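Consider what follows.

. . .
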Amino acid sequence: MTGHILFVDDDLPMRETLSLCFRRKGITVTSAGNIEEAERLAEKGGFTAVILDSDLGGESGMDLLDVFTKTYPELPVVMFTSAVGDIALRDDALARGAKGFFSKGESLEALLAAIQKVTA
């Protein structure tokens, strides 16, 4: 799999770890730790997908999801959350335009499969 993912999460160790894992699979990753940085990077373009944390340390990933789906409707967003089993959050994210929903407790292979599905 190839591509360029924008990974938005306020947790630096999580960004670094998953970025490394994706790079080992041949996927380019650019990461952002907050909404402002993510919006600035998205303006530059060139991304095949976004992995977006639902909670960005006091900022709402759901608000950023709204921005991305309106501004970049062709850019698939997979929501990424530690809220395991939160059906209401999943349903809200999908209703607002997310193309996938992933819990942080799931395997890396499952996340890769989710990204492959939305970029196919």
The chain has a mean pLDDT of 89.
